[in-house]
Amino acid sequence: MAYFAKCLEVSWLAAVQDPPLALNFCPGEKFDTALFKDYNKRVGPYVEFLVWPALHLYANGPLLTKGVAQGCQQNPYNRRRFIPSDQSFTFRFEQQRSISRTSSEPRDTDAIPELSDPKRPSKVAEKLKELYEIEWKNALDSLDQSIPETENIKSLLDVLNDIFHRCKALARNTLMKDVPTAEYLTIEMIPQEQLSSQSRQVKAYFEKCVEVCWLAAVQDPPLELNFSPGEKFDTALFKDYTERGPYVEFQ
């Protein structure tokens, strides 16, 4: 399960690059030592089977990391075996997964979170706090100071609100919702016209909002951001910005 989760995380990070990174799953007939390393000792000039793909900067582009393949003395292509789809490991995994989801056994997500997991809910809360204390403050300072501060604050809050709801919608409709290890989501989900005219600090704020909101959205159950402080100031939920009073003027 950890391997599957990590495969999804790494593949997602590769897929959202521009252009996407490419994994080379086709080592060919001859063993290309420029692209692949030997699995065991050097055996022969032909590829018997692929162990691990090579990584390219883009399709047919420069090599980033070598793959791993097993060599052999004779061309093995005439004895390749076809694995029926209902016998493949992926098919059997998905079959077992669907069975386990309908069983009465406790789900893995009901277990106590691993304290070393940097993406557990408490860590997401820390990232949200850092977002407010660093990127939000820098972005606010970089905005037009001739505009009332409350308007700039509302604009930045609207950005967070919009990104959070986009991430929730995307997590509900993609495979990544099942992967709590997912760490990043492409900034391309934000229309480029919203970014082109923004300062470096505001762009950094946008990117951090995407990261934090995506981590919140892929938890099971998803974490929630409270954008409705209400009329009365609830000190159990909110801290004062600059002045204290019994009513909420703005969030």
UniProtKB/TrEMBL annotation:
Chain spans, region Disordered: 95-120
Pfam families per the UniProt record, alphabetical: MIEAP (PF16026)
Superkingdom classification of source: Eukaryota
Coiled coil: none
Extent of Basic and acidic residues compositional bias: 104-120
InterPro entries (UniProt xref): MIEAP_C (IPR031981)
Limits of the Mitochondria-eating protein C-terminal domain: 3-69
Protein name (Swiss-Prot/TrEMBL): Mitochondria-eating protein C-terminal domain-containing protein
Provenance organism: Mya arenaria (Soft-shell clam)
